[in-house]
Amino acid sequence: MSSRKRAIEDVTVAKKKQKGNPPMAHHGLENQGATCYLNSVLQVLFMTTEIHDRLDPDKKLQVADEELRNLFAQLKETTCGTENITKSLKIENVGQQRDAAECLEMILHKVSSGVTEVFKGQLKHTTTCSEGHCIIEEMCPFLTLPLSLRGTSDQSQEASYSVESGFEKIFQEKTFSGDDMVYCDECEKDTEATSKCQIEFPRVLVVLLKRFDMDYNTMKHVKSNRCVDVPRTLQRMDKTCQLYAIVNHMGGLQGGHYTATVLSNEDETWYEFDDSRVRKLEEQPFTNSMTYSSSTAYLLVYRASESPERQEDGGKDARDKERKPREQKPVDQDQAPKEGIEEAQGEPLLPQSQNTHDMSHLHLNVQQKVNNRKHRPSGKGTHRNDHESSTNILKKPCVIALIVCGCLLVVILIIILVTQPV
Ligand SMILES: [Zn+2]
Question: In the chain, how many domains are there?
Answer without folding.
Answer: 1
